[in-house]
Specification:
Blueprint (H helix, E strand, L loop, with lengths): L1 H4 L11 H11 L9 H28 L5 E5 L3 E8 L12 H25 L5 H24 L2 E9 L2 E2 L5 H19 L10
Antiparallel strand pairs: 1-2, 2-3, 3-4
Helix pairs in contact: 3-5, 4-5, 5-6
Length: 200
């Protein structure tokens, strides 16, 4: 720093302040967080794929399977069962009053989407694993939010069971959210104390 502020030998003039700032910028490490074109291209590609697949499968189920009917796929393990979930993932809040439930779930979805976008902005574009994981969660959240806005409930149809044990029906959006959360946890554990979401 002292060398930057000293008079250059033989020049008789002090260095230009803008030159000094340019020198500091060149020497500083660049995190490249925020609105990176490469990062948002990856996110946008996943979002389009997830939302289109989610909505397309729901439309097919809605038009081809009567409500509450099932189509066996793997006997004793998996079937397609058309149900409508008025609650959150896996039926949480399904028994709540509609006047509270729908606005609350829509608000939670919007806040979650905003939070994920903030986290995506903080990630370096080199963190492709975490970017993909958050894109999975974001795409799933948007897919289910579309259902809530259009129908007031979410279409579920993936039905896994074993003997008398039955997992609540879910959809592709829920699947992407779950996979995204698992991948995020894996990368955070792999970081060994470093915070990949730390602001630049």
């Amino acid at each position: 720093m002292r060398a930057l502020l000293e008079i250059r030998p033989g020049s008789g003039q002090r260095s230009n302040p803008s030159d000094r700032l340019r020198t500091l910028r060149v020497g500083a490490p660049c995190r490249r967080s925020g609105l990176s074109a490469k990062k948002w291209k990856l996110v946008g590609t996943w979002l389009i794929l997830i939302v289109v697949l989610d909505q397309l499968t729901k439309i097919i189920v809605d038009r081809t399977i009567p409500l509450h009917h099932s189509i066996p796929i793997i006997d004793g393990l998996f079937r397609l069962t058309y149900v409508r979930n008025t609650g959150a993932a896996f039926g949480i809040f399904a028994g709540s009053h509609e006047a509270f439930r729908l606005p609350f779930l829509v608000l939670v979805s919007v806040l979650a989407i905003g939070f994920i976008i903030v986290m995506l902005r903080r990630l370096r574009e080199q963190e492709t694993g975490l970017i993909t994981a958050l894109a999975f969660i974001l795409g799933g959240a948007i897919g289910n939010l579309i259902d809530r806005v259009l129908h007031g409930e979410v279409i579920d149809f993936l039905d896994f069971y074993w003997s008398n044990y039955h997992w609540p029906a879910f959809n592709l959006a829920d699947s992407f959210i779950t996979v995204g959360v698992v991948i995020t946890i894996f990368y955070l554990m792999k970081a060994k104390g470093e915070d990949p979401f730390a602001p630049a």
